[in-house]
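hiii so um. not sure if this is the right channel but i have a protein structure encoded as tokens and i wanna go backwards to a sequence. like what aa goes where. can anyone help
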């Protein structure tokens, strides 16, 4: 099905100087609003925008060459995975060390079995043009879920570690004590995926749907591809959140967040 989607000549935006000017103005407005609202994220917004420009420009140059080879497509997917692991792990971990590498577990365990099953069943052709976008969507979803789950677990442990100590004093094991505190907040990492799935077609038209339509396929094919993507994302992100919970319970992913909790405030 994915292989049969032919590239069309429809364009969502025309690439011309006005597009570049619009992007600059939008980024400047985003930075200004963040500064005006005293969010403390003005520089982060600017860096994220500039980084996106550089990364997308680089991808635009190499992607047409990479997708011709399954080997290089696999290397590209591995690169996406490595960047996602570091990004999600650093979001959860505080302080130096390599504990962030544990983020490879929730991201990898959710993504690669699903990707392998799709390839083995023939639903996803073993071609770079098919593998890279689907892998990117799945890795991106796992990244978001892992980042949100890890950061929320870290925040809960920082704010409610007294409850963890109380549970330990009552005889609970460290894993059980941590999970009692973080489980509910960490589970909210699934809210974006749930909201997107509930409102698809009514509030949002996700990228896969729009991309397939612009590629010249029928609305039915676009809907089928988007449904497949959304359900796969629910599985991938659920696995990611469950494994983040387990890592937090075992003191792996956010262990260093607890190290300074006994320091005077």
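sure thing!! here u go:
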């Amino acid at each position: 099905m994915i292989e049969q989607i032919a590239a069309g000549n429809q364009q969502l935006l025309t690439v011309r100087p006005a597009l570049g000017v619009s992007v600059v103005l939008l980024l400047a407005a985003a930075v200004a609003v963040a500064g005006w609202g005293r969010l403390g994220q003005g520089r982060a917004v600017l860096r994220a925008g500039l980084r996106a420009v550089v990364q997308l420009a680089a991808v635009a140059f190499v992607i047409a060459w990479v997708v011709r080879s399954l080997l290089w497509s696999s290397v590209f997917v591995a690169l996406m995975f490595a960047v996602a692991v570091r990004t999600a792990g650093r979001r959860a971990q505080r302080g130096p060390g390599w504990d962030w590498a544990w983020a490879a577990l929730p991201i990898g365990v959710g993504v690669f079995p699903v990707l392998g099953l799709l390839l083995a069943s023939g639903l996803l052709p073993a071609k770079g043009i098919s593998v890279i976008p689907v892998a990117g969507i799945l890795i991106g979803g796992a990244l978001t879920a892992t980042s949100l789950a890890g950061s929320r677990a870290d925040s809960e442990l920082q704010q409610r570690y007294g409850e963890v100590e109380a549970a330990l004093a009552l005889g609970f094991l460290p894993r059980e004590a941590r999970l009692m505190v973080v489980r509910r907040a960490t589970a909210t990492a699934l809210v974006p995926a749930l909201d997107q799935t509930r409102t698809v077609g009514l509030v949002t038209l996700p990228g896969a749907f729009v991309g397939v339509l612009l590629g010249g396929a029928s609305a039915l094919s676009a809907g089928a591809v988007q449904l497949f993507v959304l359900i796969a994302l629910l599985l991938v992100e659920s696995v990611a959140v469950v494994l983040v919970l387990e890592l937090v319970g075992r003191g792996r992913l956010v262990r260093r967040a607890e190290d300074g909790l006994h320091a005077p405030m």
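oh and The CA atoms of residues 14 and 105 lie 40 Å apart.
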